[in-house]
Specification:
single chain; alpha/beta; GMP Synthetase, Chain A, domain 3; nine-stranded mixed sheet; four-stranded antiparallel sheet; globular; binds adenosine-5'-diphosphate; binds zinc ion
């Protein structure tokens, strides 16, 4: 089933022609309406008329999150303030946030792309979506909300946290779909186990959409097993509408990125050079149909690769591999590059391990991995704990080539955030 079959299955050649037309239009508007881009484009000597093929996008300058911050609050706005219908911001851990503006048409387009995603996974009118993402300045909940309403789903704007209330809503209104961060989905699964709820018997859940933070295939499987449902990977970022940028179809093998709305490139993050399909690098996106705030070659810092093979669902928009991490998440420990996701993969694949973990770096280069045990996972036998601990230490060492200190802690012992999970605390004295 498709939301917009013609758009979703457009032949590659027609898609490329549409992209080129939209790219020229976007660059033209950037030059005309955004002083920041006007100056940059003038410096590089590129204009709408000099873009002959899609590869010419590489002649355009990159836009970085630092550019967004430097132009805060409205230096990148391309339309009259009176035509803006919504503001979102992106958290921004340091200093100023990034401000993102949307016109009425932009909101409508974002909702439409979200609707494609939902229908692609089999969501239908009659489904009840419990939206467990944060409502507010963060795009995560609202963009999903608008898309779901467009499809004709019933939406429960639950927001995150308060698991008791989540459960009540879920039982009383027979929620069939949930939208959550993977960390909250896991946490909630643990909560259900503690309450003795069997999702299969007691709930009507069918599917979960998880995104907004990096997570591994092992985490997906763990959520699927704990809740007895299908879990779909949802990728997005506030700079590009929020959720609905790339999403898994029923094949659950990579996320279709809506290429009629975003022009995608994969580059080597160190050199900025383009990488071919199949090779892993940083995702760079150019908006192709945005009014209020077009962005050229935005460096997402997310590490992924394009899956070049066509998908069996018939959609022609290329798929992205699961995000391997953010380029700035990479840890260097005793000279070795380590992504937190490598650690998560090992932990989540191990029976007896619960849903939460925390990586702490201390001293000169000591890594401590604290990990919660599964609910009811401790049978009182200390030797079982010792075995699990040495198993995890050994598997982690094999995966990341650094030997961490593993600490097993009771379920619920680690700090838990309702928003995005914080996985790493760096207290090194370097
Ligand atoms: P912030 O940059 O403040 O975290 P956003 O809410 O815009 O604000 O977060 C977008 C980022 O979240 C993406 O750039 C990516 O790093 C991460 N993200 C979103 N969805 C996924 C996903 N499905 N898998 C991995 N990472 C994701
Ligand atoms: Zn597909």
């Amino acid at each position: 089933m498709f939301w917009d079959q013609a758009a979703e299955t457009r032949e590659r050649a027609a898609l490329a022609a549409l992209q080129l037309g939209r790219l020229r239009e976007t660059v033209g508007r950037c030059a005309e309406c955004v002083p920041f881009y006007r100056q940059q484009l003038a410096e590089t000597g590129v204009g709408a008329e000099t873009l002959r093929t899609l590869d010419d996008v590489r002649r355009l300058p990159f836009t970085t999150s630092a550019d967004l911050r430097a132009n805060y609050p409205d230096g990148l706005l391309a339309i009259d303030r009176r035509r803006v219908s919504r503001l979102h911001t992106s958290s921004g851990t340091t200093g100023k946030p990034k401000a993102l503006f949307f016109s009425k048409a932009d909101i409508d387009t974002a909702a439409d792309l979200m609707a494609r995603c939902l229908v692609m996974t089999g969501a239908r009118p009659g489904d009840v979506l419990q939206n467990m993402m944060t409502y507010g300045l963060f795009t995560g909940a609202l963009m999903m909300h608008y898309g779901a309403e467009k499809v004709g789903l019933m939406v429960i704007p639950a927001g995150p946290g308060n698991s008791e209330r989540q459960l009540l809503l879920m039982q009383d209104f027979r929620s069939t779909l949930i939208h959550a961060t993977p960390s909250y989905a896991l946490y909630f699964a643990g909560f259900l186990a503690k309450r003795g709820i069997d999702p299969h018997r007691d709930l009507a859940l069918r599917k979960a959409y998880v995104g907004a933070e990096p997570h591994t295939e092992e985490t997906r499987r763990k959520i699927e097993a704990a809740l007895g449902i299908d879990v779909y990977n949802s990728y997005g970022l506030s700079e590009m509408n929020g959720p609905g940028v790339a999403f898994e179809c029923e094949a659950k093998a990579g996320m279709h990125l809506w290429e009629d709305n975003f022009l995608l490139e994969i580059i080597d993050p160190a050199t900025g050079k383009p990488l071919p399909d199949g090779e892993r690098g940083e995702l760079v996106l150019t908006t192709l149909a945005r009014e209020a705030m077009p962005l050229l070659r935005y460096r997402t810092r997310d590490i992924t690769a394009v899956i070049p093979e066509p998908c069996r669902c018939g959609r022609t928009h290329r798929r992205l591999e699961r995000i391997a991490g953010r380029s700035d998440d990479m840890l260097i420990i005793r000279g070795v590059n380590v992504y937190p996701q490598q650690i998560e993969r090992v932990l989540m694949a191990c029976p007896g391990v619960g849903h939460n973990y925390l990586i702490t770096l201390e001293g000169l280069d000591e890594m401590i991995v604290q990990v919660e045990l599964a609910e009811g996972g401790f049978d009182g036998q200390v030797e079982h704990l010792v075995r699990l601990q040495s198993q995890l230490t050994e598997r982690l060492r094999a995966e990341i080539l650094v030997k961490p200190k593993v600490e097993l802690v009771p379920p619920g012992a680690l700090p838990f955030s309702e928003g995005k999970a914080k996985r790493v605390v760096d207290r090194r004295v370097l």
